[in-house]
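Hi V.,

You were right to ask for the full record rather than a summary. Here it is.
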Amino acid sequence: MPENDPLTQYGAPLAGVLIAVVLSIPVAAMVAGQIGDAYQTRALVYAGFVLWLLIGAVIMFMLAHRGEGDRASGRLSISRVLLWAASIWLWPIFLLFNRHRANANRDV
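Predicted structure:
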């Protein structure tokens, strides 16, 4: 593959976020199963969690893509996958931090 191919450069982070989503889906199902008595309530909670995770995965990958640059080709490890898994659940914190940092850089 050519060196400037995005899949070559961002293969490990992309694989990490995909594995994190796959690991987080059963967690979302277990949590949704504990919320509410009606099937419809559990299904809506689960669908909301899955949507939350997918949005988080896209946003976190985009933030990492911009932030890591050439360093994005790091190795895939269990710790990176767990970090991705936590990040896709907590993505609003990272998005707010990124916006705050961008505003601070713009003011300087």
